[in-house]
Each structure stands twice: as structure tokens, then as C-alpha cells.
Amino acid sequence: MAANVADEMARLQNELNELKAKNAEMADQYLRAKADTENMRRRADEEVSKARKFGIESFAESLLPVCDSLDAALAIHNATAEQLREGSDATLRQLHQALERNKVVVVNPEGGSKFDPHHHQAIAAVPAEQEANTIVSVLQKGYLIAERVLRPALVTVSAPK
């Protein structure tokens, strides 16, 4: 019986040592996982901070050629009206291209198209020879950015008859 007790004690001691080793390994894995999680959270916070700080960088870069064109136009002191018109048209095209590259889309509805309160803002209802609640004229273009209204188009609509 003494031998059985000694064997049982040895087995339990081995099991205890194995459990202590497993416990130490699990504690180490836990600490590493906790450190990894903390590092990932810190990197994510840094990325969000950088995105907020530099998110407009690409938009600003696309506007630089527009600024350069305007500077070049203003540097010409005795430009003709035709040269000014041509330069203004080219600069406006550059500006529209910069806006399009950055997902800013012009909202300029056609006369006679249906009024959409999600993209248009009616300034006045005027009598017109067209269906009620359709656009008569656009007073100011609107703009969308990634399908979200940045500014609605200001329009007049046809009044009900």
C-alpha cells in the first residue's frame, strides 16, 4: 500500500508540474495576445489620426494645377479679352476634372425634369407650360460628394395649374 501511495504521489506531482508548465505557457500567451491587441489598437488610432489629418491631401493636390493656371493668368498684365476667356475656360475645365477625380459630382438638372427634394432645393414655384413639380430653371448648380449631397441645386419649379 505504501508503494501505491508513493506512485500516486509521484503521478500527482508530475500532473501538478505539467499543469504549472501549461499555466505558465497560457499566461505567457495571454500577455503576448494582450500586447498584440494593444499594439493593433495603437496603430489603428494612429491610422485614424493620419486619415483625419491628411485625408484632404489628394484633393488639395488635384487643385494645385488650378492655382497654377490662375497664377499664370494673373501674371499676364496686358491679356486680351479673348485670352482671358480662353484661360478661364481651361481653368474651369481643370477645376471640374479635379472635382471629378475626388468624387465631387455636379447636379445640374435639365429644364422639365422631375423635382427631386433629395438633390434639389426649390426657391420658387412659377407658372409654366409644363407638368407641375418639374424644374423650370436652375439658379445655382448643386454638388454631390460620393453620392451624398454637398449642396443641393437651387431651382425654380412649375406651379400646379
Walk me through the topology.
Blueprint: H1 2-54, H2 57-75, H3 81-101, E1 104-107, E2 120-126, E3 135-140, E4 142-145, E5 148-151, E6 153-158
Parallel strand pairs: 2-6
Antiparallel strand pairs: 1-4, 3-6, 4-5
Helix pairs in contact: 2-3
Task: Give descriptors for this structure.
161 residues, alpha+beta, three-stranded antiparallel beta sheet, three-stranded mixed beta sheet, 3 helices, 19% strand
**Alpha-carbon distance between the termini?**
110 Å
SSE run: HHHEEEEEE
What is the general shape? elongated
Q: Main β-sheet: number of strands, strand sense, barrel status?
A: 3 strands, antiparallel
Q: Percent helix among the residues?
A: 55-70%
Report the total helices.
3
Name the beta content range. Answer: 15-25%
Strands in their spatial order, largest beta sheet:
1-4-5
Tell me, rounded to a whole number, the average pLDDT: 93
- Indicate the radius of gyration in whole angstroms: 35 Å
Q: Unreliable stretches, pLDDT < 50, 5 or more residues? A: none
Number of strands: 6
Given helix and strand content, the structural type is alpha+beta
